[in-house]
Every structure is written in structure tokens, then in C-alpha cells.
Amino acid sequence: MEKTYWPNRWIFILAAIGSAAGLGNLWRFPYLAYENGGGAFVFAIIIANILIGIPLLMLEVGLGQKMQKGAADAFGAIKKHFRFIGWTAIVLAFIVISYYMAVVSYGVNYFAASFTLEWQPDANSFFFNDVLQISDGPLTMGGISWPVLAGLLLAWALVYFSAWKGVKSISAVVKWTATLPFVILFILIIRALTLDGAGDGIRLFLFPDWSSLADPNLWLAAFSQVFFSLSLAFGVMIAYGSLNRKSTEITKSALWIAGGNFLVSIMSGLVVFGTLGYMALQQGIPVAEAASGGPGLVFVVFPEAINLLPALNSVIAILFFGMILLLAIDSAFSLLEALAVSVRDRFKKTNPKKIAFIITFFGILAGLFYSTKGGLYYLDITDHFVVSYGLVIMGILEAIIIGWLWKGNQLVDFIKDHSEIHLEKLWLFSIRWFTPLFLGILLIWNIYNEFQQNYEGYPTEALIYIGLLPILLAPVVGYILDKLTTR
Ligand code: PHE
């Protein structure tokens, strides 16, 4: 099979923005900003992007592009023994896609419900009882929730048919999925900002409380948010870089990707907090009481806010949940493609559609776990561990391998030769010093917090089996995959 490339650099940039901009921008970012000093957090996000986000993005894109290989073989090309680290990234990508798709399934359910505003009159009960049919805790699995499973199958169908022909189908799809959200966000911003009380919400989101910059928690939240949001550490950007022709411009591309992703975050914040301000005014409560993070924000608070709108409620709902699907789908298939590229590197003669299908099959199988009545708890726990540890440790390893262990490291020169602006010196400095240092501190801090109290008060055995175990097994499975795919 002949290798196919992105048709041009802009399609690559769109695909990467599509991967980066997702649920992380919509439900994590605005809430984190609100909790961590508003505008001060936005400032910290910019700093985190500059200090380690963009450098690591350049590293991953550059590495994939130089080696022309996905994560596994790209690391293998540095040193044979590093190959299993690439496979470990791939295993983490698989874990993320299995639970990410469950959230996309909620999105599918809400998109369908938008036409009749089915969540009326009680959005909370609709989410927890009708869609999730939630069990009373992570220790009760409670069988499949059929609406979630139905949404999951549909979501996987969308993801599979977007990625089944690899770069060819992805190129066609991202032209829409990575551009339309900007248009819809723009419409929703105008709607949100013209609502009474919007200003109060926006103030909460953007008013800078500079004193919170002294709080280490703000910085730690900013660093992990930037990492997850830029789709780093799971092999996605390495895979997307490997689909570039070797001569593609790197540094400016990385700035476009990070800039586009940041823009989606800010725009999402304006929509969410403008609307929350209106909702608070209507209900006569402080905005702070209306605000919440995570799934609750998107699937409970937002539907409630839509109920209160003066007109066109259904249209706004369709636009909002349609946009969630657009944002999430291209993030999801970037994870699929990260896996597929590394497998394709190994099985060059196998039909790419077959590879995508096999990954989809296993993805649905793993997704069943998150489609049970305890699924939301499992998703929350897995996400916490994968982001706090899997992602942070992979980031440290990438920085150390590229910055220190790679004898005759040619990536600096490669980036220099393929960039129109020259930041390689700063880049190398960041990779060698900032990245391991900041991520190291983040890792220690996360471990410390873990022992302070159980995450979200979940029972210890649930945290161990659903959170810790997958993280510990990832390198083992990575190692086995490496052996299985190598003669
Ligand atoms: N960046 C995506 C988001 O913000 C999530 C993601 C992480 C996608 C890692 C791919 C890889 O939603």
C-alpha cells in the first residue's frame, strides 16, 4: 500500500485543531477558569502553552514528520528499546477513546433530544435517570444503559466512517468538523452576549484575580489542561505529523494549531458564562451557584439555561449540541488514527479499513463498560488517572528521551530546516528543562493529593481497579503489543 499524505499543510493544521478542540475546551476550560481566578487562569493557560504546550506539540509533530512513522516506530527509530514507550502511548490513546466515546454518546442523545427539548421540565432527572440511569455508586455496575449504548454505536459509526480511509477520509471530514464549530460558536456568542445578565457571567469568567497566580493549584490545573487540550502524549500529534510530507513547515503550524485551540476555549467560555449569567438573573441566584464543571455543566446546567431562553430554544439547542458533536468527533477519530497509523506501520499489506474496523470493534467492546449504569463514575475515575499520571509521565518521558537520551539528536536541525520562524534554541531549552521540571512537580503534586483524600470520595477499591490498574497495565500491554508486532 502506498503511503498517503495530507493534501496540504492547511488540512493538516485543520485536522490538528480538530483533534485539539474538543470536550476539554467546552466543559473543562471555562469551569477551570472560573474556579481559578478567571482572567488570571487565562493568562496562566497562555504561559503554559508557551512554556511547554507548544514546545511539546512541535516535538511530537516534528518527530512524526521526521521519522514518517506513528508513535511506536517513531520512538523505535530513536532506539529500539524505546519502541514500547510509543506503544504505551497508543494503549493510553485506546483507553481515552473508549471513555471519550461514551461522552460523545451523551452528546448524540442530547442532539436527538434537542428537537423536542425532551429534557423539559427537569434537566437533572433527564440526564441522570433517563439517559444514564445512573447506579448508586461505582461499586454497582447495574447493567447496560440502553440510550448510552445506542448513542455509543452511532457515535462509533460516525468515527469509523470518518477515519476508515485514513488520511483520505479524514481530510474530507475535517474541512467541516474543524471549521463549522467556529461559525456556530460565533452565532452562540452573539446570542449569549445579548442576553440580560450575560455581563455578570462573563465577568466571573474573565475578571482577573491576579492574586490567585500565587496559588500553585492554578498553575498545575493550567499545565494539565494545556496538555490534554492539545492532544499531547497519546501519540496523536506524532501520527498526524507522520502524515505530513517531510518538507512541511513545523513551527508556524504549531502556533496555528495552539492558537486555534485557544480561540475555541475562549469562545466556549463566552458562550457558557454569558448564558450562565442570564440563567442566574432569571432564577434570582448568584452566577457562582449556576456554575459547575464536567458533564453536569454541559448536560444539566446548559439544557436548563436553554429552557429559560425567550425564543428559538430548540434551534439554540440543536446548534449547541450539534457543535459538541462536531468538536468531539474529530478529537475521537484522531485517537483512532493514532492507533491506526502505528498498526499500519507494522502491517503495510493489510487493508487500512480492516485495521480501523478492528480498532473500532475493540473500542466498542471497551466502551460497553462505560455504557453501564455505573459508567459515568468509571469514566470520571479513568479520566482522572489517565490525565494526572498517564499523560504527565508520557510527557516527561518524551522530553527526557528527546532532550537528553537521544545521542546525535537531529530533531533540532530538522525543526530548524523546516520552519519559517526560528525558535529551535528556545524549543530545545524548554524540552530539556521546563518540561521535565514542571511536569515532574505536577506529578509529585498529583500523587500527594491522591493520598490526601480519595478522588471525588470514591471507594479506594474502585480507584485502584478502574484508575490505577489501567495506568500500571498500559506499559505491560504496550510491551506485549511491541513483541506481538515484531518478528
Ligand atoms: N484534546 C481533546 C479535547 O480537548 C481530547 C484529546 C486528548 C483528544 C488527547 C485526543 C488526544 O477534548
Please give a handful of descriptors for the protein shown.
about 475 residues; mainly alpha; Amino acid/polyamine transporter I; 21 helices; binds phenylalanine
How would you describe what is shown here?
With 487 residues, the protein is an all-alpha fold. It has one domain (9-486): Amino acid/polyamine transporter I (Up-down Bundle), CATH 1.20.1740. The protein is 77% helix and 0% strand. The radius of gyration is 21 Å and the shape is globular. Bound molecules: phenylalanine (PHE). Residues 19-20, 22-25, 96, 228-229, 231, 234, 236, 331, 334-335 line the site of phenylalanine.
Return Rg in Å: 21 Å
Low-pLDDT sequence parts: none
Main sheet attributes: strand count, strand direction, barrel closure: none
Give the number of domains: 1
What would CATH call the homologous superfamily?
Amino acid/polyamine transporter I
Ligand list = phenylalanine
Helix tally equals 21
Oligomerization status of the protein chains: single chain
CATH class identity: Mainly Alpha
Principal-axes geometry comes out as globular
Mean pLDDT: 95
Q: How far from one another are the termini? A: 20 Å
Q: Might you state the CATH topology name? A: Amino acid/polyamine transporter I
Estimate the helix proportion, in percent: over 70%
Number of strands: 0
Going by CATH, the architecture would be Up-down Bundle
Give the class from helix and strand content and strand pairing: mainly alpha
N-to-C SSE string, H for helix and E for strand: HHHHHHHHHHHHHHHHHHHHH
Strand coverage percent: under 5%
